[in-house]
Amino acid sequence: MNSLLVVDDEKHYADSLADTIPWTTLGISRVLKAYSASEALALMESFPVDILMTDIRMPRMTGLELIEQARQRIPGLKCLLLTGYADFDYARRAIELQALDYLMKPAKDEQLLTAMGKIVKQLEQERSIEQGFRIYRDNSIELKAGLLLKTISGTLTGKALADKLKLYDLPLQIPGTASLCLIRLGSPFEGHDLYSQSLIRFAVTNMLEELLMERYDCWPAADDEGTLLVLIYDLSGAPPEPQWVQEQLERLKDEVRNLLKGEISAGQAECLFPEGLQASYMKAKSCLDMDRSLSGQLPESSEEEVHLMRKLYEAPLLTHLLEAEQWEKAEAKIRAFVSPLMHTGSPDLMRDVFFFLSNSFQYIANRSGRTLAQMLNPGQSAFIKGKSMLHASQLESWALDSLHTLRDKLGEVSEDHSQAIVRKTQSYIRMELDKDLSLTLLARLVFVHPSHLSKLFKQCTDTTLSQYIYEQRMLKASELLKQTNHKIYHIGESIGYPNTNWFIRKFRDYYQVTPQEFRDRYRSGME
After folding, report:
1. Which residues of the chain are in CATH 1.10.10.60 domains?
2. What is the pTM of this model?
3. Could you report the per-residue pLDDT of 391-407, keeping only the tens digit for each?
């Protein structure tokens, strides 16, 4: 509720304003009154005041002077002026002091209620905004953590993700490069209660931020299993240096050991943000499990279980097969994952394999601009949303059915989309002939797997990517030879051939003459 202070040196008028107007209808619960500016300032020392309504002409201190002094004590104070004099200088000074209204005495009740209603509404809006900021400030860590988990799961992508990053003041570029680190509490922390573990994770996060702040920013979160996830990024957009990050993780282990008297394990992986987050999560998890195993923090597993977990990360990775649309090989790899589970009977191992498969599927779904739940049918997506997987045969059936659904849905991608990828690739090649034009780089620019780009380019242009690059370089070289006096070596460098002899050889293979002969013939009228 709001409080109002009425100030007027005419006692009867101040009493009338304070006692007879139905201020409670506007949400004003307390009305104070004073008969001088000095009395008003004294009241402000003892009671909270939201709104000041004052006469202007008063002895010893005017209402304008009162506002000026009151604002120094209560910066957000709202003010309304009453006066019996139509004086332009008063009005101008009232504007300078940011008084919200200026009424002539005697003001009608309706005028007062209307003016005060506007002031109360502004107060409520400001409080609502302030409360929103306070809630955000008090919960910003949790909100940002939830955003990272949603991004990794693939439930937030595209413009919605970009808007959230801006709202939470997370200056990551899309697409961009980052490093994803996973940290797991070891002995004796893993035996602590959940609240104590959360405090330990908070301390570990702060220690890591201090180690990284010299070069990088970070964005932390914790998943349902208590694993600490930290996305490390450079404000410049440059990829974090893996070796340096690894050195800081080793320093972190030492600090946790010395200061917190416990052990942690860590794993990291480079990633393309946000498309590659899920694949990087799986790779970092593999590194984390390896680190825990080497440090003796993992319980001993059977030789069969260890072999199966290693198989998950053997080349070619499942995500690579899916990217390249090698569906038969992907199906064979999935069967190789799941078949051994029929004999091990390990619920934890089955959960890990399900998690691995669902994340691989989610990654491929996100590349097409959709979530996995959007691409799968309701029965298949129920397991993604938490339905229990009871046995290995059910997992195998789900994985293969989901794979076939993904294959069919991804096959619906229009020919126009493929053409757009090829056109974008061709445009980049023509503009950057002097740059590295490796298949890996070009695929990264258009967000597809290298083998998939190679296949698309051949389908759409009836020529190979390398042949297209070669032809474009030769065409550009011929233009420069005709239209400029640049040296031969300079022309070679400008189209990506810094070795002059190699440039001459490639030019001769294409035109059957050397660059100099080509230029001479053109200028003599033979070309």
Report:
1. 418-524
2. 0.45
3. 788 888 898 999 988 88
